Amino acid sequence: MIAPRNLTVRQLWRCYLNAKIISEEEANRIVDQIESVRTSIVEQFQQIQQKVQSVVDGVFAKVRNYLNSLDRLELNYEGIKQDFAKVFDDPQAGFEALCDRLSEFDRDTLVAPDHRSNRSGAGWRTATSRTHPERNPKTPESDPKAS
Fold it and tell me: Chain centroid to CA 23: how far?
């Protein structure tokens, strides 16, 4: 005899038919409804998967574009991605690769962009200039009072 967990919906209803619990027409109707609901759930799940994948791909694309726009070799997206992949394939070699990458960071790598400014060259500030404005001298362009 077939173990209950290995029965398909159709096999289960055939068992009911053989036991004369319900008619064949009723069994087929119920099976069709179950299969329809199952198909609908699978399709919805696949749509959700595609939407999530699209969002994830979009986020990674933004991160890639941002990092690559910085024109810093140590912040190259593909290189960082390869280093993290290496962590999962060979943890020791991966961590060594990440340490090598981090050792390439200098002060300019750690300078944060100020996205409030659209002027080329302007808008880059260090942590010191954000916390101590007096150390960031105003230029006539950036000082509205100078106009």
Answer: 50
